[in-house]
UniProtKB/TrEMBL annotation:
Species name: Gimesia fumaroli
Phylogenetic placement of the source organism: Bacteria, Pseudomonadati, Planctomycetota, Planctomycetia, Planctomycetales
Protein name: Methylthioribose-1-phosphate isomerase
Gene Ontology biological process: L-methionine salvage from methylthioadenosine
HAMAP family from the UniProt entry: Salvage_MtnA
E.C. number(s) listed in UniProt: 5.3.1.23
Record gene name: mtnA
Site positions (Transition state stabilizer): 168
Organism superkingdom: Bacteria
Pathway(s) of this molecule: Amino-acid biosynthesis; L-methionine biosynthesis via salvage pathway; L-methionine from S-methyl-5-thio-alpha-D-ribose 1-phosphate: step 1/6
C-alpha cells in the first residue's frame, strides 16, 4: 500500500463527514506505519474506544475527537425535550471524559461543548445540535491555526544545521494541523534551516518509531530513529542542539506532563547543556493546577510492555508498572512554545503573562 499517496503531506488525522447526522472518519494510528486505514465512528462508543485504544491519540487530537463524539451522542436525542437533550450531553461528556485521564485538551473540549449548550438554553434541539457540530469544527480549525503559529514561534529557536531530538509523536497525527513539536521542525525546514531530527522510538507503544519518523519521511525531512536508551549518548556525541517535545497537560508553574520518558530526556538535556523545549497550544495548560504534582497520570495495561505488538517479551506473571506519562519540572524546561508566544523563563508569572487571563 502506498502510504504517501493515501496520506499526502497534510495528514488528515480525522474529519467529519456530512451534517449533524454525519460521522467521524479518522486514521487508525495503531496500524501505522505498515497500514493506512481510516475508520468510521458512527456512535459515541466507537469514539470512546478509539481514544482509549490510541487509534486517535495526542492531546489536541483527543480533544477534537471528543467534541465530535458529543455530536454523535446527540444524534438520537433531537426529538426529545431540551432538558433531556442537555442531560444526554452531560452524560456523553462524562462518558468521554473517562476514556483517558492525562491530556487536559480532552476535558477542555468537553467543557467548551457543555458551556455552549448552557449559554443557549432557548435553542431547539436541532438548532443546538447544529451549533455543537459547528463548535467541534471550530475547535478543529482553531487547532490547525495554533499549530501554524507554534511552528513560527518555535522555528526562531533553531539554527541552520541543528540536530534536534523529539520524543513520542507531537505531529500532525496528534493534532488537526502540522502538530506542535513537529510543526516547529516543519517550519524550520521550510525556512531552509536544514535541520536533522532524531526520533526516540518511545517505548512501549513506539509512537516515535511508528508515527514521528513516518510523518517526517512523508515531508522529506531528514530523520534518524534511535531507541530511547540512546538519547544520552547521542547528546554526548554532540549530535543534538535542541530538544522539542509536546505536552499533555501543563500546570500553572510550567511543570509539563508528556509521554513517559520525556522526564529522562529533559534531565539528560540539562546535563549536556542542551535547551529542552515544550511546544503546546494554550488548550494544553491547566491553570487550575499549581504544579505538576497534581497532574493525573494514566496507567495502562501491563500487556503493552510484556506483549507489545503481539510478541511476548517477558515471563508470564511478571509484575509490571506502566505509567503512560511523566512530569518534567519547569526548572528543566528552557521555554514553552505556544501559539501566543514563547514562555521563557518558565515561571508562573511568565505563563500567566504570555497566556493572558484566558488560557484558551
Ligand atoms: O499516549 P499518547 O500517544 O496520546 O501520548 C501523546 C504525547 O505524549 C504527545 O507528546 C502529546 O500528546 C502532545 S501531542 C501534540
Amino acid at each position: 500500500m502506498n502510504l504517501e499517496n493515501q496520506a499526502g503531506a497534510d495528514v488528515a488525522t480525522m474529519r467529519w463527514v456530512g451534517g449533524t447526522d454525519g460521522y467521524l472518519k479518522m486514521i487508525d494510528q495503531t496500524l501505522l506505519p505498515t497500514e493506512f486505514r481510516e475508520i468510521e465512528c458512527r456512535d459515541v462508543e466507537t469514539v470512546w474506544e478509539a481514544i482509549k485504544k490510541l487509534r486517535v491519540r495526542g492531546a489536541p487530537a483527543i480533544g477534537i475527537a471528543a467534541a465530535y463524539g458529543v455530536v454523535l451522542a446527540l444524534q438520537t436525542g433531537a426529538g426529545t425535550e431540551r432538558p433531556d437533550f442537555d442531560q444526554r450531553l452531560i452524560e456523553a461528556a462524562t462518558y468521554l471524559s473517562e476514556s483517558r485521564p492525562t491530556a487536559v485538551n480532552l476535558f477542555w473540549a468537553l467543557e467548551r461543548m457543555q458551556k455552549l449548550a448552557e449559554s443557549s438554553p432557548d435553542l431547539s434541539n436541532p438548532e443546538m445540535h447544529k451549533l455543537l457540530l459547528e463548535e467541534a469544527q471550530l475547535i478543529e480549525v482553531e487547532d490547525l491555526k495554533m499549530c501554524h503559529q507554534i511552528g513560527e514561534v518555535g522555528a526562531e529557536l533553531l539554527s541552520k544545521g541543528d540536530g534536534v531530538l523529539t520524543h513520542c509523536n507531537a505531529g500532525g497525527l496528534a493534532t488537526s494541523g502540522g502538530g506542535t513539536a513537529l510543526a516547529v521542525f516543519f517550519e524550520a525546514a521550510r525556512q531552509g534551516k536544514q535541520i536533522h531530527v532524531y526520533a526516540d522510538e518511545t517505548r512501549p507503544l513506539l509512537q516515535g518509531a511508528r508515527l514521528t519518523t513516518w510523518e517526517l519521511m512523508q515531508r522529506g525531512i531528514p530523520v534518524t530513529l534511535i531507541s530511547d536508551s540512546m538519547a544520552g549518548w547521542v547528546m554526548k556525541e554532540q549530535k543534538i542542539q535542541a530538544v522539542v517535545t509536546g505536552a499533555d497537560r501543563i500546570a500553572a508553574n510550567g511543570d509539563a506532563a508528556n509521554k513517559i520518558g520525556t522526564y529522562s530526556v529533559a534531565l539528560l538535556a540539562s546535563l549536556h547543556d542542551i535547551p529542552f523545549y515544550i511546544a503546546a497550544p494554550s488548550s494544553t495548560f491547566d491553570l487550575s493546577l499549581e504544579s505538576g504534582e497534581e497532574i493525573p497520570i494514566e496507567e495502562r495495561l501491563p500487556e503493552e510492555i510484556t506483549n507489545g505488538f503481539g510478541k511476548q517479551t517477558a515471563p508470564d506473571g511478571v509484575d509490571v508498572y506502566n505509567p503512560a506519562f511523566d512530569v518534567t519540572p519547569a526548572k528543566y524546561i528552557q521555554g514553552i512554545i505556544t501559539e501566543r508566544g514563547l514562555i521563557e523563563p518558565v515561571t508562573k508569572e511568565e505563563v500567566l503573562r504570555v497566556l493572558g487571563s484566558d488560557p484558551a
